[in-house]
Design brief:
Residues 2-115 form the Scytalone dehydratase-like protein Arp1 N-terminal domain. This protein is α/β, with parallel strands linked by helices. Among the domains are: 6-110, no CATH class; 113-330, Amidase signature (AS) domain (Amidase signature (AS) enzymes, Alpha-Beta Complex), CATH 3.90.1300.10. Helices cover 30% and strands 20% of the residues. It is built from 16 helices and 24 strands. It has helices at residues 9-22, 48-56, 87-90, 188-193, 202-209, 254-262, 279-285, 319-330, 361-378, 387-394, 398-401, 403-433, 444-453, 458-478, 532-538, 576-588, and strands spanning 6-7, 35-38, 45-46, 61-65, 79-83, 97-101, 106-110, 112-116, 122-128, 135-138, 140-141, 148-153, 169-173, 213-218, 268-273, 288-291, 311-316, 348-352, 381-385, 482-483, 487-488, 491-494, 542-553, 560-570. It has a twelve-stranded mixed beta sheet with strand order 10-9-14-13-15-17-16-23-24-22-18-19, with helices on both faces. The chain has a three-stranded parallel beta sheet with strand order 2-4-5, with no helix packed on it. A hairpin with a 6-residue loop joins strand 23 (542-553) and strand 24 (560-570). The longest helix is centred in the C-terminal third of the chain and has 31 residues, at 403-433. The radius of gyration is 27 Å and the shape is globular. The model is unreliable at 520-526 (pLDDT under 50).
């Protein structure tokens, strides 16, 4: 698309150089024996130098609109085709295209670059159907049939698009509906009996309206239930690119996390977080991630797990893009995420000693250095608490003080809704479609959860909701309190990872020296709630921030490798903007940086 009156060799060379610098789809090789389409305004002149340049780069076709007069130009070895200018052509964005020519017509199609999904993060790629709101899945496999290929559009198509996320490539977890694409939720049975989505989830449409483009659907544990790598039956567990390549990436947003950590051609990933499904994968792959305030996003068109705790979240490598995208995506939602406050940051760091057990001294040093920076730069004071003792001192209800009982109530919140909204309807639909096939095959975790829920009642669920409300009241009065000056009177810190030790995708390796399973018993032998449950039960926002990486001796490669270390920041509900603002400030100060893809995050 040309907006100048005279087209010169210099302007053409500069445009192609800019294309090459900005885009990974465009290639200078497209010029060799290819076609150049020039969309010009009336009166545009093609300079003699441009004619020479066109011949030198090896173009075979020059396609011009009738607004450009080439009758006096002498081309050698170049076929000039003139087409009528039209509104559809005028609206064509710049960038590479596939052009099909015959005697009477010219067809112009968007060009995509295929990237190999060697980490198995995606179920399939997707592309937008031209001039529509629908998408179509793209199932292309490598010649070895080992991995899929994901098509990505040119970034050049969004030049001049003023929307804040124009052209940002997004990987989408396969529990979110996308018009024209099957939602499988990690289940072959679910995908078999339900039709292709005919409407895009409200949350996904919101990010599309901001200019982002969905490039594929990523793998999830079945129905977003927690699941160890060895419990993934229907789909193959994705490969965490960090370290030796055999570390766990958590669940259930593992595919989204792996896509962000493994591929430069993915900018953002959308996942869900009920009890840690954004935060734990973010910590395990070393990316930025956020669980927003509960009810901050309309989850229509998303497979539910626990309505009392479900949220949608994002993951990214670049903290600036992360904070901007999250701020825009969550604003104007059902629950406020930018409660008005004076603009300062909290002055208290809440350090729950019984919930943080860093077992690698190098990882502890990363934690301490970050907390020192918060104290030094923002005059914060570190307050160490025993959360379990604080809870016991504040309440007497055994449903709260007994960790086993509290864990059970949290499980009921997720399992009851997942069963009534997903499991039971699936069994009914399965029987309708396949009346002789019995019960639908499921992965071990949801199968066990649904069996437990068959005899649970609505009263059981309401009792669990009441326990959650009591825990929320405790947490917001004794741990992090809403504050008119700083939104939240304090920021609670946690580790959602593995304490600086490797946790493998192979179960047996986690019992070897120097490794750990994801679920650990903390010092003193007292089992606490998983730390990721706290913000979920209290409805709080939580961000996961990569601090650095530590070395470990791999039981796979038998050499020193590195794994990432993240820290979690929790604030009072509605303080998402404050947490994201803190991330931006820390970036400006040089405390936080973007992470890399591949084996090492830093």
């Amino acid at each position: 698309k040309v907006n100048m009156s005279i087209i010169t060799a210099s302007s053409l060379a500069q445009s192609t150089a800019t294309y090459a610098a900005l885009d990974d789809v465009w290639s200078v090789g497209f010029l060799d024996d290819g076609a150049l389409l020039l969309l010009t305004r009336p009166g545009t002149v093609l300079d003699t130098s441009a004619v020479v340049w066109i011949g030198q780069v090896g173009l075979h076709y020059l396609i011009v609109t009738d607004t450009l007069d080439t009758s006096r130009c002498r081309f050698e070895g170049v076929t000039v085709i003139s087409i009528s200018s039209s509104s559809s052509l005028d609206s064509l964005p710049p960038g590479p295209y596939t052009v099909l020519l015959d005697r009477s017509t010219i067809a112009i199609h968007q060009a995509y670059r295929l990237y190999e999904d060697h980490l198995d993060a995606f179920l399939s790629g997707v592309t937008v159907v031209p001039r529509s709101t629908t998408h179509t899945p793209v199932d292309v496999v490598s010649s070895s049939h080992r991995h899929g290929w994901i098509p990505v559009p040119s970034r050049l198509h969004w030049i001049g698009d003023e929307r804040p996320l124009a052209g940002v490539r997004v990987a989408l977890k396969d529990i979110f509906d996308l018009e024209g694409v099957q939602t499988g939720a990690g289940s072959r049975s679910y995908a078999k009996v339900y039709p292709v989505a005919n409407q895009t989830a409200a949350s996904v449409q919101k990010i599309l309206d901001l200019g982002a483009v969905i490039i594929g659907k990523t793998k999830t544990s079945q129905f977003a239930h927690a699941g160890d790598p060895w419990h993934y039956i229907d789909i193959h567990y994705p490969w965490n690119p960090r370290g030796d390549g055999y570390l766990t990436a958590g669940s259930s947003s593992s595919g989204s996390a792996v896509a962000v950590a493994g591929y430069d051609w993915v900018d953002l990933a959308i996942g869900s977080d009920t009890r840690g499904s954004i935060r734990r994968p973010a910590a395990l792959v070393g990316s930025y991630g956020i669980r927003p305030t509960w009810r901050s996003m309309d989850l229509t068109g998303v497979v539910p797990l626990a309505e009392e705790m479900d949220t949608a979240g994002v993951l990214a490598r670049d903290p600036s893009l992360f904070s901007i995208a999250a701020s825009l995506w969550f604003e104007d939602g059902p629950a406020p995420v930018n409660k008005s406050f004076a603009g300062g940051f909290p002055k208290k760091i809440v350090y729950p000693a019984d919930y943080i057990w860093i077992r690698n001294p190098a990882a502890q040093a990363l934690f301490d250095n970050f907390l020192d920076a918060l104290q030094r730069e923002f005059s914060m004071t570190r307050t160490t608490i025993n959360l379990t003792a604080t809870l016991h001192a504040a309440v007497s209800n055994s449903q709260l003080t007994n960790i086993t009982a509290l864990f059970l109530q949290s499980n009921i919140l997720s399992e009851y809704i997942s069963y009534t909204r997903v499991g039971a309807p699936l069994a009914e639909a399965w029987h309708t479609v396949l009346p002789d096939a019995g019960y639908p095959p499921l992965d071990p975790t949801p199968r066990a959860a649904f069996r437990r829920s068959e005899n649970r009642t609505r009263a059981d669920y309401e009792a669990a909701v009441a326990v959650k409300a009591m825990f929320r009241k405790f947490f917001l009065s004794r741990v992090v309190r809403p504050d008119s000056e700083t939104c939240s009177d304090g920021i609670m810190v946690l580790d959602a990872g593995t304490g600086g030790l490797p946790s493998y995708r192979e179960e047996a390796l986690n019992n070897l020296s120097g490794a750990t399973p994801l679920v650990v018993t903390l010092p003193g032998g007292h089992t606490t709630l998983p730390g990721t449950f706290l913000a979920s039960m209290a409805g709080c926002p939580e961000v996961s921030i990569p601090l650095g990486q530590v070395s470990y001796r791999s039981h796979i490669s038998l050499q020193e490798e590195v794994l990432p270390v993240n820290i979690e920041l929790i604030a009072a509900p509605g303080c998402d903007a404050m947490l994201l603002g803190l991330v931006r400030r820390l970036v400006d100060m040089g405390v936080l940086t973007a992470v890399k893809t591949g084996r090492a995050a830093f």
